[in-house]
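Figure 6 in text form: structure in, sequence out.
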């Protein structure tokens, strides 16, 4: 049976191992603690503004294999976005894709960050230091179309992101393309802009990583999640071996 450790800020599925693979999905949950009221329509909590659809199930499936573990955010990105620096206003967003988040206005931001942001990053750094993985997979998903830009198409099946270290991205791209996928290079976002997690935890210490965005319509159901979990297990193993040579 898979080991699960859970706190208010994060969940750990599987057992992190030295020389293994650690899947990090900080936007894996749409949970809102009972004492927090975001003040938005309940149905929005199932949309991309609240959660990276599909990534939790993929990470959990991957973590069922020996040598792979998953570190998952355990609150909605609308409660606290751990993929932003603590001093970034978007770490506790007041607007997301055109939707106002009134419950995040006028709050004690320092207390919210201390409750969710700091424990998440402290634990992640602890895991990486105690059990250095052969590869860190930073896993996100993106909506096919933003509400604020409905005419903008996003044709990529997935996108590789990076800041200064493009090794994982360059190795993974042809492997995904061999599966017939359209792969975006720094799409739909740039790792040189959305780089809070990689700068703090991997690039700062030279840790090998692959930062991936998957289009959400491909992983919204169980079949898609199973397909991508198998694919990512295969690709991550190949990338990890190549980086270790």
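Output sequence:
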């Amino acid at each position: 049976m898979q080991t699960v450790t859970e706190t208010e800020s994060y969940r750990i599925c599987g057992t992190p191992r030295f020389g293994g693979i650690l899947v990090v999905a900080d936007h894996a949950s749409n949970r809102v603690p009972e004492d927090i009221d975001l003040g938005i329509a309940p149905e929005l909590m199932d949309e991309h503004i609240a959660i990276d659809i599909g990534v939790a199930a993929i990470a959990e499936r991957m973590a069922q294999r020996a040598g792979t573990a998953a570190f998952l955010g355990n609150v909605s990105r609308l409660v606290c976005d751990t993929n932003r620096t603590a001093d970034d206003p978007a770490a506790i967003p007041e607007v997301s894709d055109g939707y106002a988040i009134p419950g995040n206005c006028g709050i004690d931001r320092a207390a919210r960050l201390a409750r969710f942001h700091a424990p998440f990053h402290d634990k992640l750094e602890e895991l990486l230091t105690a059990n250095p993985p052969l590869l860190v997979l930073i896993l996100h998903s993106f909506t096919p179309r933003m509400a604020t830009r409905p005419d903008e198409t996003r044709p990529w099946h997935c996108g590789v992101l990076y800041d200064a270290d493009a090794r994982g991205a360059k190795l993974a791209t042809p492997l995904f393309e061999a599966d017939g996928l359209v792969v975006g290079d720094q799409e739909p976002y740039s790792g040189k802009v959305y780089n809070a997690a990689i700068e703090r935890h991997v690039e700062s210490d030279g840790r090998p990583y692959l930062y991936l965005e998957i289009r959400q319509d491909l992983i919204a159901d169980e079949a898609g999640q199973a397909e991508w979990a198998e694919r990512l297990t295969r690709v991550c193993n190949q990338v990890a071996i190549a980086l270790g040579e």
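Caption detail: DSSP finds five helices and ten strands in the chain.
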